[in-house]
Amino acid sequence: MSAQSKLEAEIGGLVDLSRSELVTRWHRIYRCPPPKGVKRALLERAIAWHVQARHFGGLSPVIKRRLREVAGGGSTDRLARTNSQTTGARSRFSISPSSLAPGTRLIRQWHGRNHCVDVIEEGFVFEGKTYLSLSAIAREITCARWSGPRFFGL
Predict the structure, then answer these.
(1) What distance in Å separates the CA atoms of residue 107 and residue 125, rounded to the nearest whole number?
(2) In this predicted structure, what is the pLDDT of residue 73?
(3) Whole-angstrom Cα distance, residue 21 to residue 99?
């Protein structure tokens, strides 16, 4: 049996486990009981994610570090904490042109076509036109409202 089919069999077998068996596996993996009231589907998905992460290697060290920084409330050189203009109490993370070094090129493939964006001090250049935000460029490319940083994988 190949490693891929073993992985598929292990994940597929989760639906056959009882809830108490799923809770036991959760406890073994995460070293704590699952949250009260957690639904069976979440138990299965969380365990399946862990099985896949063990097989494929999980999150990269860069992603783990960024998640720890975001969860801890600290800002990084690429993420700037700003107050939302709409509520005042809510905060969000945004990518500004100043948090990306001028000269950086962002490339995103969309519907079989590569789209290149260059970072300059005044904003972003896409197809010869300067934009103040990545979201405006993402909207131009997709004709839909997207988070620019998310669209470009930042």
Answers:
(1) 12
(2) 57
(3) 47
Query: For residue 136, with 0-12 CB atoms within 10 Å meaning exposed, 13-18 middle and 19 or more buried, which class applies?
Result: middle
Q: Using the CB atoms, write b or e for 93-104: b if 16+ within 10 Å.
A: ebbebebbeeee
What pLDDT, in 10s, does the model give residues 110-129? 888 888 898 888 889 999 99
**Per the structure block, which two tokens stand in for 36?**
């009260």
Query: What is the bridge-based pairing of β-strands 91-94 and 105-110?
Result: unpaired
Identify the CA nearest to 117 among candidates 97, 146, 99: 97
Torsion of CA 98, 103, 104, 110, to 10 degrees: 110
